[in-house]
Amino acid sequence: MPSSSYFSRLVDRSLLSKSPTLSRIVHAQIVKVGFIPNTYWGNRCLQLYFKSGSVVDALQLFDDIPDKNTISWNVCLKGLLKNGYFNYALEVFDEMPERDVVSWNTVISGLDFCGFPEYGMRVFLDMKSLVVRPSEFTFSILASLVSCVGHGEQIHGNAICSGVSKSNLVVWNSVMDMYRRLGFFEYALSVFLTMEERDVISWNCLILCCSDSGNKEVALDQVGLMMEMGNGPDEYTVSTVLSICSDLRDLCKGKQAIALCIKMGFFGNSVVLGAAIDMFSKCKRLDDSVKLFRELEKWDSVLCNSMIGSYSWHGFGEDALRLFIVAMRQRIRPDKFTFSSVLSSMNAVMLDHGAQVHSLVIKLGCDQDTAVATSLMEMYFKTGLVDSAMRVFPTTDAKDLIFWNTVIMGLARNIRAAESLAVFNQLLMNRVLKPDRVTLLGILVACCYAGFVNQGIQIFSSMEKTHGVNPGNEHYASLIELLCRAGMINEAKDIAENIPFEPASDIWEPILYASLDLGDTRLAETVAKTMLKSEPNSSFPYLVLIKIYEMTLRWENSVKVRYAMNEQKMKSSQGSSKIGIKSSVYSFEAGQLQIHGGHETYTVLDLLSWDFDDQLHNSFH
């Protein structure tokens, strides 16, 4: 007869397989040898059934266990919660003859798992009222699910009052990360400084705190300090460092981080490789990103997402879509990050492909994700399909501020100002999210395009007082353009001259265009010279001055400006356009035709031109 150690190994292997059929076979064998009346083996089989998702079998077995102990109840409770049987799990919890700290921890973590994290604190308070002493895992679980600093401070205080040792890494790492996640970086730092022991998780959290608070250079310094203190970095550390280098656009330090990865043997990790691809891309070395990606022996979703995101970030939508298709053919299942990147890269001539990707999003159940819904709306707004974009709006439940901003700005740029203002008012009525500088810019753009002068001035005036947002260069630029479009050029000029910071050249552009339209060459000349002072490398003011001098017959001044422009080695920006033909996208630029068979195309165009000239010549004779 097989020994108990044999069945123990068999159960362990079956837990890894998660097969319902195998679970029933193992259970049958244990029953056959007469082990099942034993509570221990009943609990082990319960684990098997819940792990494989066979909840009905598990409940039937649970009823058959003659002498249930607290472990039996806890296994049943945890299994029901993990399989989504929330209400039934609470009934089991109420029926438990005896609850230990594991039971309470299971319910608190189960609430978070089932999407009810806000009830975790209530359960914790009930637990305290029944004088159940919390364990270190209780505080760790609570710290991971709180959403406001008030509850966080209660957890922190309770941990101290419960006598949790300052060397307890599980609790204090969790509390530190809780404060970081809530944006209270000084609190997180104070926890770090009071810890008697620190591990790599503690240091990783400190590095993230510095980075999230905007002190990215300081975050990189902590890596060196961490190594001096005897804590070696792990894969998460180096991937975070690479992400920080991406944000800083610091290629030199990024390469140093990659060298450290290779030295420590982390460069085979997908997350690290993905961060390296992203770092090269953000540092304007897309060729290096592509080279690194092509040298990989095996792709996965993380790596493909990084490369697709890199193509999208650089505006190479066709390449992003092509890689997306290749990854699908290699059975790499796209996730919400994949869809978000691909949809963001779509342009007007790729709309058919965008509709197909949208269908796939719905098929795979990713349409409810906020980031994917935002990218979908962005794609439709960008291609002018406002109604298609707005059909996504009511179907998205968890709307974050980026989502609202995308809707407001999308409607504004498609000259649907009234709808943009209505969505803005809807956001204000929610009172959950507060408008930021992007939100207010979207409203100003809407007012500008629609000519809503009074509303635009009112919004601009209320930015600091009502919404706590200081107007930036982009807000002033939108207000000035609004005034110029309304013919209020003197008011716009007064505002531009009294901006409390050094304005960028785009502040003056609307005034320059307005003065040219009015034929006021003196004002246009003054504004163009002002623009040259703020942005001397821009070709636009040079071209305007040349035009003004030629219009007013000041040829010598025109020659001087042309000479200065040549000295700066400037070229006027070339126009370009794209066209989609069947499954391909072709790009046209001034003086260049970038399609296969371009010479033949030019020949045909020349023939058509000659034929047109002949017909025109004959029509006059």
From TrEMBL:
The keyword Ribosomal protein does not apply. One of its GO terms (molecular function) is RNA binding. The keyword rRNA-binding does not apply. Keywords: Repeat. One of its GO terms (biological process) is plant organ development. PPR repeats lie at residues 69-103, 168-202, 300-334. This is Pentatricopeptide repeat-containing protein. It comes from Capsella rubella.
